[in-house]
Design a protein that fits this description.
The chain folds into five domains: about 375 residues, Glycoside hydrolase, family 3, N-terminal domain (TIM Barrel); about 150 residues, Glycoside hydrolase family 3 C-terminal domain (Rossmann fold); about 140 residues, Trefoil (Acidic Fibroblast Growth Factor, subunit A) (Trefoil), CATH 2.80.10; about 130 residues, Immunoglobulins (Immunoglobulin-like); about 120 residues, Jelly Rolls (Sandwich). The longest helix has 21 residues. Helices cover about 20% and strands about 25% of the residues. It is of the alpha+beta class. Strands 14-31-30-29-15-16 form a six-stranded mixed sheet, with helices on both faces. Strands 17, 18, 19, 20, 21 and 28 form a six-stranded antiparallel sheet that branches. Strands 41, 43, 44, 46, 49 and 51 form a six-stranded antiparallel sheet that branches. The protein contains 18 helices and 51 strands. This is Glycoside hydrolase family 3 C-terminal domain-containing protein. InterPro entries: Actin-crosslinking, BXL, CBM6, Cellulose-bd_IV, Fn3-like, Galactose-bd-like_sf, GH, Glyco_hydro_3_C. Keywords: Hydrolase, Signal.
């Protein structure tokens, strides 16, 4: 979910509710007084004159009866108005405004102000570890407790201001972490659908609560579906062949919904097989996975994209009709202004594109959740008494510390470097040593325990230094001067480099740096879209205007380049370089007209770090990412490396002190091969919230034994990754499932301070599958958790099978010498593949390797089971076969057959699809294709390979439009026996189906 304001972002302040944008319009005078009075009187909830006698307010009645009663009392206009994200009050029935969507990815984060144009306000409560960190616990029980805390705090905020803090929570994100470059990697859980499903189910169940008829809060899964790139995210097509769709993509969403751990989905921005996800049929997918009624929403602006960037429909009325018919119940668009939504739906009704029954169906879905939230119960339901006192409670702080501790992953620990001896002196070094960062979907931290703070509580710290260069920039005899206090416009002013002329430089990679003013400790930002000012507590906001580059010139000077995200937009042009006028004021201009500055290094960060490292027995270096800079929503990463300056800092510290421990604090895989080869210990944590320092210290000093495990593969430096827009993990051999590369750290990797032995793996038939058990013993000197992981591999198959696939896991605690038997249930049905020849799941008869270990590459016990199943028959192409059900391809893209339903295949010159093991019998005499093409083309039918024997050529006529389908046929010669049939395209063609005649 992106922002709903043009320029979101602003300085973080320690207020309970703070504006995320400096452009926020504020109510003043009588309007402000009236708004305050309305909130004081509780008018954000049901108006005072509600009739308590209406049946819909009787909680003793069945839910459906209550829904029907209220639905029957609403006018058509009222029902239409409720399709917008701000569902207006119906005062005659005593019903208050209901707003969809509070962001709550790893704690209550932000919502929109229902009284102030939809601008964003931020919560100040418990911020748990980022989602990828929660998954790294491999502990659904813990994650459920986190969800409970988040749902409880959402209730607390709702009790204070129900107009702002809605109880429909837009979380969790269950999009699979298919590509480590995805900008939103921090928001997802894992590259594996089983782990993702387990963690999302736990989080959702925690948010909802255990009451069978009521919801603590209503979690909504994001973003359906196949949303794993940010580049051109509203116009790119996620092409999912059926096996990838059914075996990989859909299970990530299905698990939580089938477990009743979510109340709906949010549609994604991208296209899925050529059709915008905003109008992909939810009735044929997500609604079939649960008996519960779902309340589905669009992503922000999605409805307008259909006629805007996507140009999928000519009018907004057509778009609105398609949305409702696809199963989207709420239009997240136009901020607080519901009038455009109402106008488009009214137009669709007037044109016969929608009926009142369609509107009733959507409103019924909405009401199903509103009732379960207790809105229409006289006492607010079982969760209605939760107050703001629940926010940032001592219990939640304790839980947060535990979550941050369990999420940390020990990547390397040679020679018993960790845990540290508290008697040993420590130097804490690095750009993240004494700060905590939040991300776009974080709330504000109510307090901070930094790594330095946590270590200081445990040991003698000889030094705490950031290792950042302190510089001054000079031109024409004057220095770039900043303001004090709250900050001021920078200008060329002073002739001497005092504190107001000095800046600390932090390297975030690829040349991007931030500049923190020594004058007031605030970051330099571009202000008013022109000049520069030192007024930001941290880099933040949608455009992140605190990013710069110091570009070296041949004469030894540097150009100061503004590098905020919007510089990639075409409208911004080349005016990104800083120019100082004669009076010293700054503006942005072209490189040729920019001021050339002399960079003076006042203090070397590396020299300071080396001196600190030499002063202590151990050096702890904290490096990593800045979540608003190193990849985030709308910005994929193009580089997996740790920032060069940070790497050099670690190497210099390690050279000065061999007892160097690296804490890597980031949100995604990083190629740290050189550090893995050199430094003795590496501990990874995501940005883990206010308790980060306590959690790290607990692990560093052995009070907690690390047991976090990586939820995605970390590739090696130089590894060739496929195009981020290529979603075919089978063809590209992506993720741990299909890759045969040796990664830097494998899926499931994580070390411990103790050792574990595995014995006696058994797999016996039980019910509809197998019971797999293994004994796990703590063979070391410390108590600790082991994450026991079960994988399988199918030895023989009609299709390409995963190298191995996670089938179960359990995090178990063992005292030294203790043994536990861990038992998994492996259902035969879970071993099914999607059979493209018949369009259903099928279990093949085959031997399967059963593999148990502590990571996907650390298998400790193995056995073999024989799975009873079927042999998938040869293809019968004499029946109409969907082109999308191909077995292999080169360049094929799945597209939409019509705007309402169906998949087809788009191919360009030289590209092909193939159908394996087709039984042509004694001879196929001809072929008929369903085709669409804007220009005449041809399709060659070949046997065995794309260059194999030519069986026939189909001439494809120009149909005039990609949605205008025609039949094209040709005779075939010498087409008999069992063959792999290839369709090779000459030109640009869409194919929806084929059939061979005999």
């Amino acid at each position: 979910m992106p922002p709903r304001t043009p320029y979101p972002g602003g300085a973080r302040t320690p207020s309970p509710v703070l504006a995320r944008t400096p452009y926020r319009r504020r109510l003043r005078g009588p309007a402000a007084a009236a708004a305050a009075l309305a909130l004081a009187l509780g008018l954000g909830a049901a108006p005072a004159h509600a009739d308590p006698e209406h049946p819909f307010r009787d909680p003793s009645l069945p839910l459906q009866q209550r829904v029907d009663d209220l639905l029957g009392r609403l006018t058509l206009a009222e029902k239409v108005s409720w399709l917008h994200q701000y569902q207006p009050a119906v005062e005659r029935l005593g019903i208050g405004l209901f707003k969809t969507g509070t962001e709550a990815l790893h704690g209550v984060a932000w919502s929109t102000d229902a009284d102030d144009g939809g601008n964003v306000v931020t919560a100040r409560g418990t911020v748990f570890p980022q989602a990828v960190g929660l998954a790294s616990t491999w502990n659904p029980g813990l994650v459920k407790k986190v969800g409970e805390a988040v749902g409880t705090e959402a209730r607390g905020y709702h009790a204070e201001n129900p107009r702002v803090w809605g109880l429909q929570l837009w979380a969790p994100v269950v999009n699979l972490l298919r590509d480590p470059r995805w900008g939103r990697n921090e928001e997802g859980y894992s590259e594996d659908p089983l782990l993702t499903g387990a963690i999302s189910t736990a989080y959702g169940q925690g948010i909802q609560g255990d009451d069978p008829g009521h919801l603590r809060a209503a979690p909504v899964l994001k973003h359906f579906a196949a949303n794993n790139n940010e580049v051109r995210r509203d116009t790119t097509n996620s092409s999912l062949r059926p096996r990838v769709m059914h075996e990989y993509e859909l299970p990530a969403f299905r698990t939580a919904l089938a477990s009743d751990a979510a109340t709906g989905v949010m549609t994604a921005y991208n296209l899925v097989n050529g059709r915008p996800a905003t109008v992909t049929d939810l009735n044929a997918s997500v609604r079939k996975w649960t008996d519960r009624t779902l309340f589905n929403v669009s992503d922000a602006g999605g409805p307008n994209n259909l006629t805007g960037s996507q140009k999928y429909f000519a009018t907004q009325a057509e778009a609105a009709a398609a949305l409702v018919k696809a199963g989207v119940d709420s239009f997240t668009v136009d901020n607080t202004d519901g009038r455009p939504t109402v106008a488009s739906v009214d137009a669709a009704l007037a044109q016969g594109l929608l009926t009142e029954a369609d509107i009733d169906r959507a409103v019924r879905n909405i009401l199903s959740v509103r009732f379960r939230l207790g809105e229409f119960d006289p006492d607010g339901g079982p969760y209605g008494k939760i107050t703001k006192e629940a926010v940032d409670s001592p219990e939640h702080r304790k839980l947060n510390r535990r979550a941050a501790t369990e999420a940390a992953v020990l990547l390397k620990n040679s020679g018993g470097t960790l845990p540290l001896d508290p008697a040993e002196t420590v130097a804490v070094i690095g750009p993240l040593a004494d700060t905590l960062y939040t991300d776009w979907y974080s709330g504000a931290l109510p307090y901070e325990v930094t790594p330095l703070d946590g270590i200081k509580e445990r040991a003698t710290v000889t030094a705490g230094v950031e290792g950042a260069d302190r510089i001054a920039l000079k031109a024409g005899g004057r220095y770039l001067t900043a303001g004090t206090g709250a900050g001021a416009d920078l200008k060329l002013s002073s002739t001497t480099p005092g504190a107001t002329e000095q800046f600390d430089v932090f390297d975030w990679g690829q040349g991007v740096v931030t500049l923190r003013s020594v004058a007031n400790g605030k970051y330099v930002s571009r202000a008013n879209w022109s000049t520069l000012v030192n007024d930001r507590d941290q880099p933040t906001g949608w455009f992140v205007q605190e990013q710069f580059k110091l570009e070296a010139q041949d004469d030894g000077t540097v150009l100061l380049r503004y590098a905020g995200y919007e510089t990639a937009e075409p409208w911004f042009g080349p005016n990104v370089y800083v120019r100082a006028a004669e009076d010293g004021t700054l503006s942005l201009t072209t490189a040729g007209a920019a001021t050339r500055f002399t960079k003076e290094v006042v203090r070397s960060g590396i020299d300071e770090a080396v001196a600190a490292a030499r002063s202590a027995g151990t050096a702890v270096v904290v490096v990593g990412s800045m979540p608003f800079i190193n990849g985030r929503e709308a910005h994929d990463r193009t580089d997996l490396n740790l920032a060069e300056g940070q790497r050099k800092l670690v190497e210099a510290v390690h050279a000065a002190n061999p007892n160097t421990v690296v804490i890597l604090e980031n949100s995604y895989p990083a190629t740290v091969d050189r550090l893995q080869e050199s430094v003795p210990a590496i501990l990874w944590t995501t940005h883990a919230g206010a308790e980060t320092g306590h959690a790290l210290a607990d692990i560093l000093y052995g009070d907690a034994n690390p047991a976090g495990r990586l939820a995605q593969t970390w590739p090696r430096a130089g590894a060739k990754l496929p195009d981020i827009l290529d979603y075919d993990i089978i063809k590209t051999r992506s993720t741990y499932l299909y890759s045969k590369d040796r990664p830097l750290y494998a899926f499931g990797h994580g070390l411990s301070y103790t050792t574990f032995g595995y014995q006696g793996l058994k797999a016996r038939r039980s019910g509809g599958g197998f019971e797999v058990s293994v004994k796990v013993t703590n063979t070391g000197p410390r108590a600790g958790d082991e994450v026991v992981q079960l994988y399988t591999h199918q030895r023989s198959s009609r299709v390409e099978q995963p190298v191995r696939q996670l089938r179960g896991f359990e995090r178990v605690h063992l005292a030294p010498g203790e043994t536990k038997t861990v038992t998994f249930t492996l259902k035969t049905a879970d071993l099914a593949l999607w059979d493209v020849t018949r369009g259903r799941f099928a279990v093949e008869e085959s031997a399967h390797d059963v593999l148990v270990g502590s990571a996907s590459d650390r298998i400790r016990q193995r056995t073999v089971i024989q799975v009873d199943g079927e042999r998938i028959p040869a293809r019968d192409l004499s029946r109409v076969t969907r082109a999308a059900d191909f077995d292999d391809h080169s360049g094929a893209e799945l597209v939409d057959e019509t705007k309402a339903s169906g998949d087809a295949v788009a191919l360009s010159a030289g590209e092909w699809i193939s159908f394996a093991d087709a039984d042509l019998g004694r001879g196929a005499s001809g072929v008929r294709l369903g085709v669409a093409a804007t220009e005449a083309a041809s399709v060659e039918v070949r046997a065995g390979s794309p260059t194999g024997r030519l069986l026939g050529t189909v001439r494809v006529p120009a149909t005039g439009d990609v949605y205008r389908w025609a039949e094209a046929s040709a005779p075939l010669v010498r087409a008999s026996g069992r063959q792999d049939v290839h369709l090779v395209v000459r030109g640009d063609v869409r194919i929806k189906d084929l059939v061979l005649s005999r």
